[in-house]
Design goal:
By secondary structure, this protein is of the alpha/beta class. It has a single domain (3-129, 143-176), classed as DHBP synthase (Alpha-Beta Complex). It contains 6 helices and 8 strands. It has helices at 3-15, 37-47, 74-81, 100-103, 117-126, 146-152; strands at 20-23, 28-32, 56-59, 88-93, 108-113, 130-134, 159-160, 173-176. An 8-stranded mixed beta sheet has the order 7-1-2-6-3-5-4-8, sandwiched between helices.
Length: 184
């Protein structure tokens, strides 16, 4: 399947409330649109993850995160846009209307501007951020390829995009934008 076909298929699945597994900067992830709360619930069930922990939003640009994050200074926005050389997820204050399925028990939301070209293009096509969480059962090994997705999740994932992660490492580092504290 060509990249254009994969983009179109991923967009269709996501817009219909489905779950797509695809490579990110560092691991394979499970993705859905943040407005599809049933898809978020399904991801949490698949991963056996507590909704209290919250989830990450990834986007192609800062505007796609606007409806989820509280207003930030230009300096903090620059941090998000021009992140470290390693994949970096930032914990930022969330808007009060953001679903607890996304923020968990917190008044913050974890966000990342993706450097993965496929996901960045997909976010641009959708004009939306995506829920992104590592493709694994909570507390177990993370998938690094499509074959592992099929083993971990024989059912429940609507589309698997084959590809390579950009850097074969652990999931992105997570930093609190207000304090600079590294959380992961």
């Amino acid at each position: 399947m060509s990249t254009a076909c994969e983009l179109t298929r991923a967009q269709q699945v996501l817009e219909s409330g489905g779950i797509v597994a695809m490579p990110t900067e560092s691991v394979y992830g499970l993705h859905c649109l943040p407005q599809h709360l049933d898809a978020i619930k399904k991801i949490l069930q698949l991963k056996q993850r507590s909704p209290d922990k919250g989830l990450i939003l990834i986007a192609g640009d800062l505007l796609q995160l606007d409806e989820y994050i509280s207003p930030l200074s230009d300096t903090l926005k620059e941090k998000i846009v021009h992140a470290y050389p390693v994949p970096t997820t930032w914990v930022v204050p969330a808007r009060s209307e953001v679903s607890r399925l996304i923020t968990g028990q917190f008044n913050t939301v974890a966000v990342r501007i993706t450097r993965h070209p496929f996901i960045a293009r997909l976010c641009q096509q959708l004009n939306s951020a995506l829920i992104s969480t590592s493709a694994n059962i909570s507390q177990q090994s993370v998938a690094h390829c499509a074959h592992e997705i099929k083993q971990i999740f024989p059912e429940g994932v609507d589309l698997i995009i084959e590809g390579k992660v950009l850097v074969n490492t652990q999931p992105s580092q997570i930093i609190d934008i207000r304090t600079g504290e590294r959380l992961r």
